[in-house]
Specification:
The structure is a homodimer. Chain A is an alpha/beta fold. Chain A has ten helices and eight strands. Chain A has a domain of 189 residues: Divalent-metal-dependent TIM barrel enzymes (TIM Barrel). In chain A, strands 1-2-3-4-5-6-7-8 form an eight-stranded parallel barrel, surrounded by seven helices.
């Protein structure tokens, strides 16, 4: 059932969150490229610090494929003015994604508005927000990748928590919207195989890391591939069976472990594990 | 959509986990009863410490309704011998539940066996384990309450993570098996209303607490009702619409807050919040 073993690093991407405690965006581009990694996913705050033109130049000079810009989203808010501000900010995010040639804009859709207990209402706001930016994204040729987040983030980060919800949104919205599948968020889902198959060509990105036992922090204790309990090759096999043939993007938030290591060691570990446990 | 406000404490139950850092089982029985709470849910380790006969006597003397015995479960294991040991232990748990007149035996079904990444396999072991104890439970007249746990516990506590999965298991197993609905575990589920309706008379218990933002610990940072983001009256309304008219059981694991308070204050806070936010 599992996918065939990976034999080289040609489709390995690293999300700069993985080394963000150690490297700036410019350092990460140079560092990854030096170590033979040709895919990168970029965060907007790091892009702003580097400067968009300088980043685009560095990415091109090092032959990097930008597998995503992180991130849009956070649509729900208590007031119409705040929701409009989120929409306006998305148009800028789409322009930034185009400027650096990103393959998609990754969307962490947002959780409950402050003071709200209405998760169904928040989910409606996500649909409204996506609808409001979709035409602009289509015109710009920038695919929007909804990333379902683990249910433990439903309150404060994303109220889209399963592949089924993301697929339902794609059904509603039509072309221009797809899905970022992150094994950390979806590995537990009993409907995962079916919903990955349903997603098919909507799959715009595939993110990897591992679920540690125990997990000591809800946000910043993700594991390196192989150190946890996720059967990554099995999920990769499902994603490939659905037609996905893009990069595999490592995204590890790890305050106590990987963010404290030499970033070269982190990247080399990603490379090793990529060929053995992904 | 929400349920009618609660007007008295006649259906309030407290799970002894809520005061386990402060009170033994005997103290909890006396403490809850003194403060006018007539429902209690009991843990097996506390029951063993107290002695089964003494506990049964105290519960009866104080007119307590035992809304559950916590807990059975933990079916998956690496070896057949370990899985059989879990089954054997369940037969004892069922006998204990009968001895104290519990309304159900609550099952936390277990996660991945040590060293395993096969969550589908773990789920099969859960079905096998339930099948193995069901006849005994039926003969004893003790309902088994499968408790779907939040997906953040899929690896180490329960690989049944949604109401849909619990309903599917009940469909497979037939009479004698039902569901314990805990708002903490299921509040995020986009299919919750539908799956509660589907559960109908299978609902054997209804557990309440709250999801805090931020949540600082995956296990021991549950909130008092009203301090978090769960719309409890709405979920209670769905459970009642499905036909449930039993107790509402407060279960709060809270190492840094409620386990450090005077247990009388904890119980009184449960009583106050019960009439205002549940």
């Amino acid at each position: 059932m599992s996918a065939r073993p990976l034999v080289d690093h040609s489709r390995l991407s690293i999300n700069t969150a993985t080394t963000r405690a150690q490297w700036t965006l410019a350092e990460a581009i140079k560092g990854y490229a030096t170590l033979g990694v040709r895919g990168i996913s970029v965060w907007r705050d790091q892009l702003a610090d580097c400067g968009q033109k300088e980043a685009a130049r560095l990415l091109a000079d090092h032959g990097m494929t930008v597998t995503g810009l992180c991130r849009g989203g956070m649509f729900p808010a208590a007031t119409a003015a705040e929701r409009q501000a989120a929409i306006d900010d998305h148009l800028r995010a789409i322009e930034e994604a185009v400027a650096i040639g990103a393959q998609c804009l990754v969307l962490v859709v947002g959780g409950l508005p402050k003071g709200s207990k209405d998760i169904a209402g928040a989910r409606s706001m996500v649909l409204d927000g996506l609808s409001a930016i979709l035409e602009f994204a289509r015109s710009a040729g920038m695919p929007l990748a909804i990333e379902p987040l683990h249910p433990m983030y439903a309150a404060d980060r994303a109220c889209v928590n399963t592949m089924a919800q993301a697929n339902d949104l794609c059904d509603r919205l039509g072309p221009g919207v797809g899905i970022a599948v992150d094994v950390y968020h979806v590995w537990w889902d009993p409907d995962l195989e079916r919903e990955i198959s349903r997603a098919g060509s909507r799959i715009l990105a595939f993110h990897i890391c591992d679920w540690l036992v125990p997990t000591r922090d809800l946000l910043l204790d993700r594991g390196m591939m192989g150190d946890g309990v996720i059967d990554i090759p099995r999920i990769r096999g499902w994603v490939e069976a659905a037609g996905y043939d893009g990069f595999h993007e490592v995204e590890i938030f790890s305050a106590e472990t990987w963010w404290k290591r030499d970033p070269n060691e982190v990247v080399n570990t990603c490379k090793e594990r990529y060929l053995t446990v992904v």
